[in-house]
Amino acid sequence: MGSAESKTKIPADARRLPSVDKVLQSPVGQALRERYGHTVTADAIRDALNAARLERAAIATVADISATASAALELAHKPRLTSVFNLTGTVLHTNLGRAQLADCAIDAAIEAMRNAVALEFDIDSGGRGERDNILRDLLCELTGAEDATVVNNNASAVLLTLNTLAFGRKAIVSRGELIEIGGAFRMPEIMASAGTQLVEVGTTNRTHKSDYLNAIDSETGVVMKVHTSNYRIEGFTAEVPTSEVAAIAREMGVPMVDDLGSGTLIDLAPYGVAPEATVRQAVDAGADVVTFSGDKLLGGPQAGFIVGRKDLIAQLNANPMKRALRADKIRIAAIEATLRLYRKTECLAETLPTYRFLARSEDEIRAAAQRLAPLVGETLGSEYRVTIADCRSQIGSGAMPVETLPSAALAIKPLTEGGRAPELLAESLRQLPKPVIGRIARQTVLLDLRCLKSEADFLANLAAWRSPQVPK
Ligand SMILES: *Cc1c(COP(=O)(O)O)cnc(C)c1O
User: Fold this and answer.
1) Distance separating alpha carbons of residues 36 and 61, to the nearest angstrom
2) Domain ranges of the chain
3) Residues in Cβ contact with 330 at an 8 Å cutoff, skipping those fewer than 6 apart
4) What would the pLDDT profile of 336-349 be if each residue is shown by its tens digit?
5) To the nearest whole number, what is the mean pLDDT of the chain?
6) 208-215 own/partner pairs: CB under 8 Å, 24+ apart
7) Pocket test for ligand 1, best of 160, 293, 306 (most atoms within 8 A of CB)
8) Tell me, what's the pLDDT at 183?
9) Count helices and strands in the chain by DSSP H and E runs
10) pLDDT at residue 2 tops 80
11) How far is the CA of 295 from the centre of ligand 1 (A)?
12) 399 pLDDT higher than 90
């Protein structure tokens, strides 16, 4: 917001513009000042006057200028982190913030935000406490591990583990597991940042026990297994199970680390998802350290969990890097409440949004589509055809990369042939007060309704829809 007007010579045709002061004194000006403060409001009024001058508006009233300033201020004060309707069909969408928290976790986080909390304070003795004590018992109970610690996210968990156990030493990993999960998380690069020398063993599709055995030497810090989170190698393949890698590592006297990625605390078969090793199974198989995320299948806030052998977790906690990666009170509160829900796994589909979304049946979702389709069709008008399409939802966040769940979508097809009509429709849906995010397939905008929480909210939001301006 500039204020160069004082130095520019006022052209004759702009003489009828009101002064900044006059607009500030007007009722709307006063209201804006009250809401946004004097400086910001005066700047916005100056900008509106400059714009009117540039447009050579001969007359712009106080009302015109204050309306322009008001619109600009409202836009500038809209939160950048807007909530959206995730109708992409990806339940744990990394770009849309992954897991939505359970109500009890939200309440716990709010309580912690609002109050002083016993974060590192021992209520019994009145002395200093340990923030890791808050979650240790729950994590050990739910995973069967001896000890546990919590950091910022799973990338941090892997970094801290490697830096602590294999700094200046070698980490042995199968070539089939050298993952990139997007962005800056590529296993070879994480290893380099941790000061660990990566030793690749086996081939892309086949790795054998002997590959691990031959690679381990006196400079080995850890043997590592990494969950192949966003791909699957199929065909002529061989992978050494965790229990056998762990046995080899134990025999050779080096710790075995298992990066589970998403990590799940329960068997997902009842949700129609193929079985995947739980954290407890990885611990039982003999992994010395297991790392996993808080905001993937676990359904909590962003966090990284490290569970495993007591002596190794103690080493991790003693690393100065731990201080830089630790979780804050808000997240610890939300994690505690989320983990407690796992004591009653039979209720997870009601208590935890992630499981509620996964548990929704195809029939239930299609029924929602049938209710919504005619109403959405009415709002969008005769230029679009709204039908119900079968589709498949993904779990997302690298949890079970090729696993999908049957679902139903609103399929919105612009009747104008070709061109950018589907993109323009998708854009107009993103411009709604609460942006609606879908996906485009075959010239059709698909809105997968698996993660739609309220049909009424969706329709009320859609009422503000404006037909996209099709360029000529
Ligand atoms: C997702 C994932 C990570 C990173 O976890 P964040 O919680 O996103 O930091 C690391 N390893 C694997 C195998 C993953 O799937």
Assistant:
1) 22
2) 12-76, 85-92+357-462, 103-351
3) 109, 112, 113, 301
4) 999 999 999 999 99
5) 92
6) 208/238, 208/240, 209/240, 209/244, 209/248, 211/174, 211/240, 212/172, 212/240, 212/245, 212/248, 212/249, 213/248, 213/252, 215/170, 215/172
7) 293
8) 62
9) 19, 13
10) no
11) 10
12) no
471 pLDDT higher than 60: no
What is the residue with the minimal CA distance to atom 13 of ligand 1? 261
From the list 135, 64, 76, the residue with the least C-alpha distance to 105 is 135
Query: 103-351 is classed in which CATH architecture?
Result: 3-Layer(aba) Sandwich (3.40)
Ligand 1, atom 10, residue with closest C-alpha: 261
CB environment 145-167: b (16+ within 10 A), e (fewer): bbbbbbbbbbbbbbbbbbbbbbe
Q: Is 298 in the pocket of ligand 1 (CB under 6 A)?
A: no
Q: Domain 85-92+357-462 belongs to what architecture?
A: Alpha-Beta Complex (3.90)
Find out whether 117 and 123 touch, Cβ atoms under 8 Å: no
Q: How far apart are CA 107 and CA 334, in angstroms?
A: 8
Query: For a substitution probing ligand 1, which of 181, 191, 331 has the most ligand atoms within 8 Å of its CB?
Result: 181
Measured in Å, residue 256 CA sits from the centre of ligand 1 at 18
pLDDT beyond 60 at 14: no
Q: Is 226 near ligand 1, meaning CB less than 6 Å away?
A: yes
- What proportions of the chain, in percent to the nearest 5, are helix, strand and coil? 45, 15, 40
Instruction: Tell me if 181 CB under 6 Å of ligand 1.
Output: yes
Phi and psi (nearest 5°) for 225? Answer: -115, 140
Q: What are phi and psi of 242, to 5 degrees?
A: -50, -45
User: 181 C-alpha to center of ligand 1: Å?
Assistant: 7
Around Cβ 295, how many Cβ atoms within 10 Å?
26
Q: Which distant-in-sequence residues (6+ apart) come within 8 Å of 140 by Cβ?
A: 146, 147, 148, 307
Q: Is 185 a pocket residue for ligand 1 (Cβ < 6 Å)?
A: yes
